[in-house]
Design a protein that fits this description.
Catalyzes two sequential steps in the biosynthesis of coenzyme A. In the first step cysteine is conjugated to 4'-phosphopantothenate to form 4-phosphopantothenoylcysteine. In the second step the latter compound is decarboxylated to form 4'-phosphopantotheine. This is Coenzyme A biosynthesis bifunctional protein CoaBC. By secondary structure, the protein is α/β, with parallel strands linked by helices. It has one domain: CoaB-like (Rossmann fold, 3-Layer(aba) Sandwich), CATH 3.40.50.10300. It contains five helices and twelve strands. It has an eight-stranded mixed sheet, with helices on both faces. The longest helix is centred in the last third of the chain and has 17 residues. It is globular, with a radius of gyration of 18 Å. The two termini are about 20 Å apart. The model has no long low-confidence stretch (mean pLDDT about 95). Bound molecules: cytidine-5'-monophosphate (C5P). Cytidine-5'-monophosphate binds next to helix 3 and strand 9.
């Protein structure tokens, strides 16, 4: 990357899982290592962008030159995104946001009660990407982790959320995706009235990030 490729641009990237508290010691979460989002943040910074990385709990160091904001729940992630993005930003929504959170969070550690099961009532979390697409004016890129009908579901998701670009990956495969160092993406993007597609990888997540950034930059400027 030329260090001036993204000069003057502000990229906001979400990464990792969100964790939704049940009580002080337990939570619900999604599977996500954060590696893909961190790779995009690192490469965007190397290409000269100002980068804000809004991250759920992961075991990764903040990449050099990146401003990391650490969050836990979907609501705190939404809050951080709302404070960070403007209409001129590029927003890459890589986080595995929990769709639901426990309706009530217990103040004290919950105790086992006899041999009975346990019912936890869940309430829906806000959709951060949908908010960004509808309210912020930023150029929005989503991810779609699917285990079947990957391209159909991804295209439908792009419509539903009102975004310009979506990166689909098949998380049912064990050689790419979750926790792996490699990934393969099928990117769909709007071009006037058409939906175009481009494959990226399989390759190391750093290389995938580099190609994806180039594609985002091209589509955004077209
Ligand atoms: O609807 P689904 O979760 O499959 O959509 C995935 C995309 O939407 C990802 O880009 C993810 O980061 C984003 N998302 C979000 N807020 C949610 C759920 C998903 O930003 N509550």
């Amino acid at each position: 990357f030329h260090p001036k490729t993204l000069k003057g641009q502000h990229w906001v990237i979400t990464a990792g899982p969100t964790v939704e508290a049940i009580d002080p010691v337990r939570y619900l979460a999604n599977r996500s290592s954060g590696k893909m989002g961190y790779a995009i943040a690192e490469m965007a910074a190397r290409a000269g962008a100002k980068v804000t990385l809004i991250s759920g709990p992961v075991c990764l160091a903040a990449p050099f030159g990146v401003n990391r904001i650490s969050v836990e729940s979907a609501e705190t992630m939404l809050n951080a995104v709302q404070k960070s993005i403007t209409k001129d930003s590029v927003f890459v929504s890589c986080a595995a946001v929990a769709d639901y959170r426990p309706q009530e969070v217990a103040d004290e550690k919950m105790k086992k009660s006899g041999d009975d099961g346990l019912v936890i009532e869940l309430t829906q979390n806000p959709d951060i990407l949908k908010w960004a697409a509808q309210e912020s004016g930023a150029f929005c890129v989503g991810f779609a982790a699917e285990t079947q009908n990957v391209s159909e579901y991804a295209k439908a998701k792009m419509e539903r959320k009102g975004i310009t670009m979506i990166c689909a990956n098949d998380v049912s495969r064990c050689d790419i995706g979750f926790s792996c160092d490699d990934n393969e993406l099928q990117v769909f993007y709007r071009d006037n009235d058409h939906v175009k597609t481009q494959g990226i990888g399989p390759a190391n997540k750093a290389l995938v990030a580099e190609e994806l950034i180039q594609l985002i930059n091209k589509v955004r400027q077209s």
